[in-house]
Protein: LysR family transcriptional regulator
Amino acid sequence: MTLPPGTPDLEVLDLLVSVAELGSLGAAARRHGITQPAASMRITALERRLHVRLLERGPTGSILTEPGRTVVEHARPMLAAAHTFAAGVAALRTADRPKLRIAASKTIADHRMSQWLAALREARPEVTVALDVGNSRQVEAWVGHGQADLGFVEGPHPPAELGSRVLGADDLVVVVGREHSWARHRTPVTVRELAGTALLWREPGSGTRDTVWEILAAETEPARPAAELGSAAAILATARTGLAPAILSRLIAEPDLRTGALVEIPLADAVLTRKFRAIWRRQAPPADPADLLVRYAEQFERHRAAH
Structure:
């Protein structure tokens, strides 16, 4: 099927409809980002093409003629169909783009994910990434239930029901506020002393909590928490007051250690670390682009450890 002779292009019809909606050729020109003389020339060309006068031009402005109003009514469904067509094509392009649903623990999301995703974006700009953030157990659940294609967690052990790969290690540090009694002496503490102290803990399900609890429980039953707080930011703020010691990722504590808002307390008989892991459903191991993201994360962590 070919178009009938004299069929105008949609852009000039859209301009004419704007004149009808705004009541002014000048306002229509501004809506379309062109000058008023250019808009007038396009409407004149349309009139010649249709052999119909569309506007009455006068010293006070331009108004639609009766045929002009009829042309506008015919143009509206054509323009609506064009918008529907454009939206449908855009949806096809979006549907055709690779999607990657990932979930990450709060520490990884805040301190690692931006670098890993930047590398993926540079290599595969067409990939659409959706990121959910929770604690490590929440991430494991999302991956296990198929709500995420790939997860990133920290903790002492790999999830039993999921596939995993170690990406790197993260140091944990014992910190106190400047007003805490430990800050005045900075004497190394033992794991047993730490276990017997009421600490600021993350909520159950946190990778940091699981790692520290396992280390302390191997020595003795840990004391009841001074407080359980649902975010690293809340622990930082509370630790600064001197209420109780906290054990945090060095990534999180470092800014406060540099300013002196927090003081690091050496641990006499242990090194506290936890592992960063990528996790996935065993029946759905990482494939491109998820596999590429895991490899970039590994490379980044190896480079960081070497320097």
